[in-house]
Specification:
The protein is mainly α. 66% of the residues lie in helices and 0% in strands. The protein is built from 3 helices and no strands. The chain has helices at residues 3-57, 75-89, 109-115. The termini are far apart.
Length: 117
């Protein structure tokens, strides 16, 4: 082997290593995304299991913690409000910013301002 062939082989190996590194980086990003999804699903599963246990061992209160401020609200409006309050207390966002997403960090100011209208 002469010097030119050795140098050509080294360059080819360097290109292969670069491609492998790019593939490894993509794989790492995919694994991180999967781990985050898994963690989010575990949290949601734990909350749902807790909720199921509560419902099987005791009756849930019919009245939400926050009641509508208007006494003259129609029954349909009151029922919709109570459903949103129930969803919020089950751990989901009811605000227009994150509607339907799982609440992972306590109370949401947007949701709370909506409930207190």
């Amino acid at each position: 082997m002469d010097k030119k062939e050795i140098f050509t082989q080294i360059e080819a190996m360097e290109e292969q290593m670069g491609a492998m590194y790019a593939d490894l980086t993509k794989l790492k990003a995919t694994v991180v995304e999967l781990l985050e999804d898994n963690q989010r699903l575990q949290i949601e599963n734990e909350r749902l299991l807790r909720l199921i246990r509560q419902e099987t061992h005791q009756e849930l209160a019919e009245e939400p913690a926050v009641l509508p401020s208007k006494a003259d609200a129609s029954p349909l409006t009151r029922e919709g409000y109570e459903n949103l309050a129930r969803l919020y207390h089950e751990g989901f966002h009811i605000c227009n910013v994150y509607y339907g997403h799982l609440r992972t960090e306590g109370d949401c100011l947007f949701c709370m301002s909506f409930l207190n209208k």
